[in-house]
Amino acid sequence: MIELEQQEATTGGTVFVLTMTEGENRWNTTFVREMAKALDEVENSEGAAALVTASAHEKFFSNGLDLDWITRSPDESDEHHPGGDRGVFGEEFMRVMGRILTLPVPTIAAINGHTFGAGFMSALCHDVRIMREDRGFLCANELAIGMTIPRPEIALFRHKVPAPAFHETVMLAKRWTAPAALGAGIIEAAVPVEEVLPTSLARASELAPLATNRENYGWQKEALYGENAALNEPHGAAHMLKNMRDFT
Fold this sequence. Notes:
This protein has helices at residues 29-43, 67-70, 89-101, 118-124, 151-160, 165-171, 178-184, 196-207, 214-225, 237-242, and strands spanning 2-8, 14-20, 49-55, 60-62, 107-111, 114-116, 128-132, 138-139, 189-191. It has 248 residues and is an alpha/beta fold.
């Protein structure tokens, strides 16, 4: 379901390669918990490092929420279902997304194919996105399938998707091709499919030294996306600059 390997970074330190191996990599509680275990291993390591998240499927990075599992009748027991407990999914999934967003090492999503809904959200939680240039869509398809986008997810999109692409993404369920996503600033690079993982690994090696001081790197992410984040401050930059002691 989730495989985690380590490689030596060319710049020193470690590149963790997390590969999702569960078919279309749809999100359910079991998948969330396996992802959390892999993140534990990365967080419990020391020294310069970066994380690359990839998929073993030839067409999908992640096809979103496990709809067959989540839409089963409420009367159907979750006890023996491989997807796990539906009752705890929302909170546990959002917590894992928050962990990826603030992981104290650089993170790269190696997007080799379709990336919908929860899969798109997970890719946006990474610092860098490298995408296959010729095939595959990024899409927040919740409205298209009769679902709503929760407020925490809207906040994520607002931070990670530049305007006006934000409105097209959230309200129009736009399907972003790699060239369009690159032009909109959603991804960093669009490359041939055979270059997605090598390019992501090279970028991870380049960025790994930034996390030599994990505490410092993690603090910076919290300042961007955590409680009382700088991006959400009610005051303008000029006020904050003139009153620096109030914002340390």
